Amino acid sequence: MIEAVIFDCDGVLVDSEVLAVEVELMSLAEIGLDYDEEEFKARFMGMSTTAFYDALDADHLARLGSNLPDGFRDLCSARYRASWHRLGEVPGAREAVAKVSHLKAVASSSSDEALNRKLKLTDLWEPFTPHIYSADHVTHAKPAPDLFLHAAEALQIAPERCLVFEDSGNGVRAARAAGMPVWGFMGGGHMNDAAGRRLLAAGADKLVCDWAEASRMLAGI
Asked: How far, in Å, CA of 188 to CA of 53, rounded?
């Protein structure tokens, strides 16, 4: 029996992944690192910020023979935040969250500061506080299970009774490693059929196309 629902933030509650991918691919191309968009999303989505930039640094060293340029991370972060005037909820997220009768939490690979800011900008902070957990709360972020286990412990619910909503392969793998059922969420602006196939391959129990469908499904558990 499900007793709690744990939500990823970016691409599940807040439609931010489409902005992040846009900014990151543009900025990386400027320094000579070009990626296929689908491969980029498959590899990097759901990573913590630190792990993401460590992986990019390794790619830059392997391909171009040097580390990322000084200040590159700060440049990307500034450009991403500058795009937040376009930030909104994933359509239907607030209404769906308000209907959830179970205990609930957010568990996101974002930093604590960025996570809280995005939730507040989209009026999604209040429904979850104080159960808002970021990569800053654990040593090992997704795809390790630590963040989801941290959220379950805080909620005082056994992991197997926590249902997770995730939009990334890394997030699905983290939930599965935590022993939690996980539904792959397809409602974000960055999602497509290829992304859905990746979620199922990572171990998602099922796919949910949008928040209207999620609400109907949650009402039956």
From this structure: 23
